[in-house]
Amino acid sequence: MDAFDTPRMDRRSAIKWIMAAGAGAALLSRGRLLGAAAQARTAKGYGTDPDVMKASKPGDYWPLTLTPAERRAAAALCDIVLPAEGAVPGALGVGVPDFLDEWVSAPYPEQASDRTLVSGGLAWVDAESRRRFGSAYADASAEQRATLAAAMSPEAADGSEMAAPSAFFRRFRDLTAIGYYTTPDGMKDLGYVGNVPLATFDGPPADVVERLGLTDEVKW
Predict the structure, then answer these.
(1) Does 66 score more than 60 pLDDT?
(2) What is the SS3 string spanning 146-191?
(3) What are phi and psi of 85, to 5 degrees?
(4) Burial call 144-177: b when 16+ CB within 10 Å, e when fewer
(5) What is the pLDDT of residue 216?
(6) Which residues pair with 88 in a beta bridge?
(7) How far is CA 38 from CA 10, 42, 104, 180, in A?
(8) Rounded CA gap, 143 and 9, in Å?
(9) For residues 99 and 62, what is the distance between their CA atoms, to the nearest angstrom?
(10) Which carries the bigger pLDDT value, residue 4 or residue 20?
(11) How many CA atoms lie within 13 A of 124 on its CB side?
(12) Which terminus has fewer CB within 10 Å in the chain: N or C?
C-alpha cells in the first residue's frame, strides 16, 4: 500500500463527520441558507437519514461512489491542499479522503451536485497528469502534482481553458478544508478551544460588566 492507498476509516464515524461538517458548512453565508430553504420546499425527497447509532455495516448507509482511482487521486490532491507540517497532521493524516468519499456519495441535493463536479474533476486530473507526466496523478512526483494543482488555481485559470478544472479545484479545496477543520486536529490547528467544560465560572470580567452598565442589575 502506498501513501495514497489510504485505509478506510469506520463508516459510522465518517457519516457522523459529514453530518457535523454539513451543519457547519450551511452556516457559511446567510444567502446560502435562504437558497437551501427555498430548495427544500421544492426538491424531491431522498428518503430518511441513516441511523448512525444503529447502523453497523456498509449496507446500512448509502453506497460509496468514488472509484479506487478517484480515491487515490483525491488523496494525492488532499496532500497538496493541506500537507502535514511537523507534528501537525495533514488532510491525509486525519482521513479527509474518507470524508470526501462519504460527502460526494450522500443522497442529498448539494452532495449530489458535488459528486458530479468532484468525480469529473478527479478524472480530468488523472487524464491531464498522464498527458503531461505519463502517469496517474497519485503516481506523479510531488513537484509534478504541485505543478498541476497550481495550473488549476483560480488566479492561473481565470478566463482560460482551465476554467472548468479551476471550478472543480476551488470546490475540492473548500471540501478538504471543511473536512479538515471539523476534526479535533484541525480545530487545534486553528487554536479553537470551545466545547471545553469549565471547572468554575466566576462571571464576566468586572470591567466588561461596568462598561455594559450592568453592575447593579446583574449578580453572578
Answers:
(1) yes
(2) HHHHHHCCHHHHCCCCCHHHHHHHHHHHHHHHHHHCCCHHHHHHHC
(3) -135, 105
(4) bbeebbebbeeeebeeeebeebbebbbebbebbb
(5) 56
(6) 85
(7) 34, 7, 22, 29
(8) 29
(9) 14
(10) 4
(11) 19
(12) N
Whether 12 contacts 98, CB under 8 Å: no
In this predicted structure, what is the pLDDT of residue 62?
A: 83
Question: Is the CB of residue 119 less than 8 Å from the CB of residue 104?
Answer: yes
Q: In degrees, to the nearest 5, what angle opens at C-alpha 38 toward C-alphas 37 and 39?
A: 90
User: Quick one: DSSP state of residue 88?
Assistant: B
pTM score: 0.69
Tell me which of 17-31, 168-182, 191-205 is least confident: 17-31
* Alpha carbons 149 and 27: distance in angstroms, whole number: 28
Only one residue has cell 487521486, namely 73
Distance CA 160, CA 141 (A): 25
Average pLDDT, integer, range 72-80: 96
Cβ-Cβ contacts under 8 Å for 176 (sequence gap 6 or more): 77, 78, 81, 82, 91, 96, 100
Taking only the tens place, the pLDDT of each residue in 94-153 is 999 999 999 999 888 888 999 999 999 999 999 999 999 999 999 999 999 999 999 998
Nearest partner of 174 among 95, 96, 72, 109, judged by Cα: 96
Question: Which grid coordinates are listed for 20?
Answer: 457535523
